């Protein structure tokens, strides 16, 4: 008797279509249930997995939007140049998108940012200019330096035989940054939660993520609470609680923490603001690694700690969303270095102690 034929294969899971380019893989990231934070608070705390973007962070979204807007406006053409001052992730996103459009990219970064980010930017073929970290009021500040560099490159481009345009992305004050999150990140969160969320919270760097997502979610439901998670050394907590730009302490985090009201923040209102210290952020980072397999960057630690604080304010049974901005590998020299952490009186991962 012949053997029975094999059973037909199970239907393949639904998969996204073939993307025509890497640009089409930016966005539409999963929303993850954060078990440790949820069980600790009696709330449902969800994290938008933004490290899954092709450039490795949430900054791919505004990078794509800012370049494509300049192309649509006719001020930037293939072969043109993109310039930005950034702590790193926006530079990586801009370099990636610029490559897709055959453009050159120059990134100005404070020299105290992680070597892993610097390597990533250089590895994408962008020119990296490092400057000493200085406050925004100082002409040597990395953002202001990049603005002057853009002016110089525009003059050179205009004098060339074939001008292709120069974009100074200026993410801090470029409204396209905010719009990118309002139109994509917020819309995705609303769809993924089926509109069943009570609050959203994250830290502020340029201001585009928090203000854009806040505007987008409030357009769907004005009663959604918006929270700010601010690292030590930044001035946003004081501004949104007392109306003054004051800061105290310092933080090992990178890419977040703001000392001025950028254009992206001008009309943002915050319902709940929390100041998160590095020790608390690190404890959540280590807890998520050990218990959930989530190895995230320092800003994600601030965001999850902020979501926990917001959950305690709102009470049990609420649903709160935050963003998991990037992965831990950019910060490994800090968060996985017992010597670095002990020198600053910060907790060390239990398995490394």
Biggest sheet descriptor: 6 strands, mixed
Shape: globular
Order of secondary-structure elements? EHEHEHEHEHEHEHEHEHHEHH
- Strand tally is 10
Helix content: 25-40%
Secondary structure class reads alpha/beta
What is the average of the pLDDT values? 95
Task: Give the termini distance in whole angstroms.
Answer: 64 Å
Helix count, DSSP H or I runs of 4 or more residues: 12
Structural Rg: 21 Å
Low-pLDDT regions:
none
Strand arrangement within the widest β-sheet reads 1-2-10-7-8-9
DSSP strand content: 5-15%
What would you call the quaternary organization? single chain
Task: Based on the model shown, name its key terms.
six-stranded mixed beta sheet, 353 residues, alpha/beta, 10 strands, 12 helices
Structural account:
- The protein has helices spanning 35-41, 60-73, 89-100, 115-123, 142-158, 175-192, 208-220, 236-242, 278-292, 298-314, 332-335, 338-343; strands at residues 31-33, 44-49, 81-85, 104-110, 127-131, 166-168, 199-202, 225-231, 272-276, 319-324.
- The protein is an alpha/beta fold.
- The strands form two sheets. The protein has a six-stranded mixed beta sheet, sandwiched between helices. The chain has a four-stranded parallel beta sheet with strand order 5-4-3-6, sandwiched between helices.
- The longest helix has 18 residues, at 175-192.
- It is globular.
- The chain starts with 30 loop residues before the first strand and ends in a 10-residue tail after the last helix.
């Amino acid at each position: 008797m012949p053997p029975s034929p094999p059973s037909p294969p199970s239907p393949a899971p639904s998969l996204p279509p073939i993307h025509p380019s890497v640009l089409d893989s930016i966005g539409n990231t999963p929303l993850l249930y954060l078990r440790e934070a949820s069980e600790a608070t009696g709330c449902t705390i969800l994290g938008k997995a933004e490290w899954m973007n092709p450039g490795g962070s949430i900054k791919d979204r505004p990078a794509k939007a800012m370049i494509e807007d300049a192309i649509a406006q006719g001020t930037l053409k293939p072969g043109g140049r993109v310039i930005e001052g950034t702590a790193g992730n926006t530079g990586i996103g801009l370099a990636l998108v610029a490559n897709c459009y055959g453009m050159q990219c120059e990134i100005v970064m404070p020299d105290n940012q992680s070597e892993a980010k610097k390597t990533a930017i250089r590895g994408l073929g962008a020119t990296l200019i490092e400057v000493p970290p200085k406050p925004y009021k100082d002409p040597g500040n990395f953002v202001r330096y990049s603005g002057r560099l853009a002016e110089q490159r525009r003059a050179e481009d205009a004098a060339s035989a074939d001008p292709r345009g120069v974009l100074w992305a200026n993410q801090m004050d470029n409204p396209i940054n905010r719009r990118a999150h309002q139109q994509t990140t917020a819309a995705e969160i609303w769809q993924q939660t089926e509109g069943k969320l009570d609050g959203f919270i994250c830290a502020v760097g340029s201001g585009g993520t928090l203000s854009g997502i806040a505007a987008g979610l409030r357009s769907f439901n004005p009663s959604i609470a918006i929270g700010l998670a601010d690292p030590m050394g930044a001035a946003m907590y004081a501004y949104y609680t007392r109306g003054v730009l004051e800061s105290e302490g310092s933080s090992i985090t990178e890419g977040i923490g703001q000392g001025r009201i950028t254009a992206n923040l001008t009309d943002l209102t915050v319902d709940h603001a929390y100041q998160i210290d590095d020790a608390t952020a690190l404890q959540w980072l280590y807890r998520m690694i050990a218990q959930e397999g989530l190895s995230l960057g320092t800003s994600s630690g601030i965001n999850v700690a902020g979501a926990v604080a917001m959950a305690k304010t709102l009470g049990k049974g609420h649903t709160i969303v935050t963003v998991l901005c990037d992965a831990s590998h950019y910060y490994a020299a800090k968060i996985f270095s017992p010597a670095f952490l002990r020198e600053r009186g910060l907790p060390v991962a239990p398995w490394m102690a």
